[in-house]
């Protein structure tokens, strides 16, 4: 035993030295952005960053300006904070920045999925075929059917649905949209009651995984939590296995198309299940939380609620739902709701906070800023954009940026407003809730349709109110900055009931 102690000690020192030395010796070279390695070797600023990325980056921007390189857990991230300089990064005409490499590492860790080099292109072409145009119409119908099933039950409206129910608004939105979204993408069995129970169980576990997710990505879980994540991953791999899928009706063409592609590439059944898990996550992780913020803002801003209700009545007519009926909906109305469109755009501006990451391919790659200044970047470093801070919260682009203004994206004549300026220059990227460029969310049109459908059903068929109308809008859970839609630090109680039959 005594012999092993020095050997282990030497091994440990070797590992520490291997990890820390490159960081210790790295110095800013001429023409590189300001370098801030933080006080702790290898970790750099990782702890402050993970604790509250938004506040931390604000401090870094105040200290270094619009471009700076940070050491975070052994890697170097160059943050670009000037949105007028985003164009060349997002277009990346010379293919010097790589989205796929980082994404592949992440999905292997989180979902156990070993990505193929063609996946990114395949997912985007499947989505162009099946999540837009005619494919979207089909999915809208399927989503209406699923929302009816989840909100009214398998037999349509029952007499007791006009009673008041109380719930957490976040839980209600996430739970309802998750179950409906999951069923419309992954299909049904013949037994609808059982489908609902299974979807409920799936949501409970999805939520457990979701709560662990930010610390899992940052490798900050305790031993018990690691085991729990492993169990949850196995559960999802099993429940979303292709053999289960084959027993179902109405599996969406989007999912079928992508699985067919994987089969043709020789991907085995176990890996296809992991792919399904990844798609469940991508398709359901943000819709519920975004709809929560939208409904909460409407409940806190009666003038906005009234404008949305008036518009809904105008395009859909008075809501009517008799006993044993499911929701009926005129889908063409989704194209004629500028007020609701503005509400959702404003909600996404306030609530969607992804980080966009690209790995630098070559040494001495040039980063050209709008000011004309050029910086050199090193191979393997990561270029990072955090548009929530640098675009969506910029008071120059969006005056009073923290305030919800339901008509911020409406012109005085009621059409969609697309003209926004920074320092007097018209800005192309004035909100970026879906990311941009090669990695832009391919499900954004479906996401908007689903959220519009849900909000329209809620405001036309239901009475809703906050249990405490004076309850403030909760703060954002700071651990979730950088991971898509933010979540509240705590839930908000509300009441709802189906409007009585007329
Ligand atoms: C409010 C809802 C949603 C928001 C805010 C959202 C946002 C995003 C963001 C920010 C990204 C990553 C961009 C990046 O890494 O640069 C993304 C990726 C993705 N989203 Fe969404 N999304 C939503 C809903 C959906 C839906 C409904 C689907 C599918 C039905 C979907 C499918 C995907 C997929 C497959 C990717 C990965 C794309 C790739 O690998 O290039 N999303 N989404």
From TrEMBL:
PANTHER family: 7-ALPHA-HYDROXYCHOLEST-4-EN-3-ONE 12-ALPHA-HYDROXYLASE (PTHR24306:SF0), PTHR24306. The chain crosses the membrane at residues 6-25. This is 5-beta-cholestane-3-alpha,7-alpha-diol 12-alpha-hydroxylase. Keywords: Endoplasmic reticulum, Heme, Iron, Lipid biosynthesis, Lipid metabolism, Membrane, Metal-binding, Transmembrane, Transmembrane helix. It is a single-pass membrane protein. Belongs to the cytochrome P450 family. The gene is LOC103588225. It comes from Galeopterus variegatus (Malayan flying lemur). SUPFAM superfamilies: Cytochrome P450 (SSF48264). It is found in: Endoplasmic reticulum membrane. InterPro entries: Cyt_P450 (IPR001128), Cyt_P450_CYP7A1-type (IPR024204), Cyt_P450_E_grp-IV (IPR002403), Cyt_P450_sf (IPR036396), Cytochrome_CYP8B1 (IPR030686). It comes from the Eukaryota. Its cofactor is heme. Signal peptide: none annotated.
């Amino acid at each position: 035993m005594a012999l092993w102690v020095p050997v282990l000690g030497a091994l440990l020192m070797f590992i520490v030295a291997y990890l820390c030395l490159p960081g210790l010796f790295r110095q800013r070279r001429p023409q590189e952005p300001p370098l801030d390695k933080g006080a702790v070797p290898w970790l750099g600023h990782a702890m402050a960053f993970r604790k509250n990325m938004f506040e931390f980056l604000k401090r870094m921007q105040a200290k270094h300006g619009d471009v700076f390189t940070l050491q975070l857990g052994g890697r170097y991230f160059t943050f670009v904070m000037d949105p007028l300089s985003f164009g060349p990064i997002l277009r990346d005409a010379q293919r010097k920045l790589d989205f796929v490499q980082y994404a592949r590492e992440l999905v292997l860790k989180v979902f156990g999925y070993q990505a193929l080099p063609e996946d990114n292109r395949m997912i985007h072409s499947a989505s162009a075929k099946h999540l837009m145009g005619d494919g979207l119409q089909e999915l809208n119908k399927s989503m209406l059917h699923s929302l009816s099933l989840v909100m009214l039950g398998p037999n349509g409206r029952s007499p007791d649905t006009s009673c008041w129910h109380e719930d957490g608004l976040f839980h209600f939105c996430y739970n309802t949209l998750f179950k409906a979204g999951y069923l419309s993408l992954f299909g049904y069995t013949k037994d609808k009651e059982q489908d609902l129970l299974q979807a409920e169980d799936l949501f409970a576990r999805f939520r457990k995984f979701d709560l662990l997710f930010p610390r899992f990505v940052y490798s900050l879980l305790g031993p018990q939590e690691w085991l729990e994540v492993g169990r949850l991953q196995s559960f999802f791999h099993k429940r979303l296995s292709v053999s289960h899928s084959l027993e179902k009706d109405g599996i969406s063409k989007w999912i079928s198309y992508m699985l067919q592609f994987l089969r043709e590439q020789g991907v085995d059944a176990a890996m296809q299940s992991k792919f399904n898990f990844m798609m469940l996550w991508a398709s359901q992780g943000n819709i519920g939380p975004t709809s929560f913020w939208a409904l909460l803002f409407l409940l806190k801003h009666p003038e906005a609620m009234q404008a949305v209700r008036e518009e809904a009545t105008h395009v859909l007519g008075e809501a009517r739902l008799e006993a044993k009926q499911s929701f009926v909906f005129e889908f063409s109305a989704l194209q004629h709701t500028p007020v609701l469109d503005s509400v959702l755009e404003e909600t996404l501006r306030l609530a969607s906070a992804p980080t966009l990451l690209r790995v630098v391919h070559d040494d001495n790659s040039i980063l050209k800023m709008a000011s004309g200044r050029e910086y050199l970047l090193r191979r393997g470093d990561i270029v990072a954009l955090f548009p929530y801070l640098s675009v969506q919260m910029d008071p120059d682009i969006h005056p009073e940026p923290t305030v919800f203004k339901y008509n911020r994206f409406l012109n005085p004549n009621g059409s969609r407003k697309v003209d926004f300026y920074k320092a007097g220059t018209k800005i192309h990227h004035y909100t970026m809730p879906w990311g941009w460029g090669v990695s832009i969310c391919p499900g954004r049109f479906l996401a908007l349709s689903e959220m519009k459908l849900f909000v329209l059903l809620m405001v036309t068929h239901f009475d809703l109110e906050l249990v405490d109308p004076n309850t403030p809008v909760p703060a954002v859970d700071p651990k979730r900055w950088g991971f898509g839609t933010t979540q509240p630090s705590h839930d908000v109680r509300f009441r709802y009931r189906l409007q009585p039959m007329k």
